[in-house]
Each structure stands twice: as C-alpha cells, then as structure tokens.
Design brief:
mainly beta; Porin; twelve-stranded antiparallel beta barrel; two-stranded antiparallel ribbon; 2 helices; 14 strands; 51% strand; globular
Length: 253
Amino acid sequence: MSRNTLAALALLAIVPTVHASDAPPAVDTASRYTLSANVTLASQYRYRGLMQTNNQPAIQGGFDLAHASGFYIGNWNSSISWLDDSNSDVSAPVEMDFYGGYKGNLVEGVPVDLGVLQYYYPGDFPSGYTNPDTTELYAGIGYGPMSFKYSIALTNLFGFADSKYSQYFDLSGNFDTGLWGLTVNAHVGRQIVRNVDNGSYTDWKLGLTKDFGDGLSVSLAYLDTNADRAVYTNTRGRDMGRATGLLSVTKTF
C-alpha cells in the first residue's frame, strides 16, 4: 500500500461522516408568519358607543399578518355614513383602518399590546372641512379575562378642530361561561375630547357571543352612552349616542 493511500485512509478516519439527520434544519420562513382574515355583517356600526351608520346595517372586514416575534400589521374596513350625515356636501362612505404593533408578555399571564392606528376616510370634502383622518398611539395590558387599553390621538380626533391629544380609556372583559360556547362581553370606556365643550363622554356595553366553531360567531349586545345630545346629534336629527341593541355575525379565516 502506498504512502499516499495510507494518508488518505488516516484522513477519512478522523473526519466525521455527516448524515442528513445531522445537517442544520431548513428554516421555514412561512411558518414564522400567521395570516388571518375576518368578515362581519352587523345590524349597525357603533364605535366607542356612537353610531357610524345612522342605525343602518354595516359590512366590515379585514386581515392581520403576525410574525412569531410578536410584531404585526393589519387592516380593517367598514361601511359608514356618519360623515355624510354630518354634512350633505361630504361623500365618504368607507372607513379604512391601518395598524401595526407588537404583542408579547410583560410576565407570564400578563399580555401587552403596543401600536399605532391610522383611521383613514377616503372621499370628497368641502373646502374648510376639518380632515377626519386620525392617528392614535395605543397601549394595552391584560390579565385573565380582563384587559385595559389606553389610546391618545396625535392628530385632531375624527374631525374635531383643535382636539389633538384627545384620549380614550377602555376597560373590557370577556368571560367564558363554559356553557354552549357562550362568552359574556362587558366594556366601559371614557372618551376625552380636548377643547370641545361637553365633547367628552362615557360609553358602556354588555353582551353575549356564541361560538359555533370553524371561525363562525354571533354576538348580541346592549350599548349606551352619556354623550351630550347637543354635540352628538347628526343632521338627520338622531342622537348618535343613544342606547341600542346590536347584532353581528362574524366569520374568521
């Protein structure tokens, strides 16, 4: 056997053989992202207790893209009429929300949610009309079935002039009854509108959600506010914050 052959055999003896099972696992980048979507048909659209569709039905839907790290972006949309109801020269039938942020755990069992939300209202507005587009920063924290969320506007709030830095406080709870897929939904919120006389108000909600499985759920709720009628009555003569019942059907994918 030659000297070169002996050297080659010695080299093979000290170099480990790499098997397929020993190779680094392939990185599945797709599994690091979760895409979900939703569509809702509601008897009307209420936001922070105020009517957005003049007591008429609303179609709503959106999507969320979340990364395994906790960062997310999303979009949500709804038919609306409140801008048209405020001024006959306005044509803005859709609300489009764009948001992004981070969800994680402050400690085990205490989730947090930090982000920014842009409310966008495409349409035609008369000269001098205060732009209703609104940007808010929000921070939320949860514990068990309870959650608290704080929002602050970095712009004028929904068309109120000189209302920058208005705030909203949201305390909510979703309590699983353990019966028939029913969850009790409770909420109280406080909207502070800066520099608007009697513009601030409190809203509350109590309802039930029935989970039918496969992403289908039905909700029924009672909502009310103490919003000042002098501020929150639209041009159709309707009190935007009056008590109401709301029925909605949601499908998530």
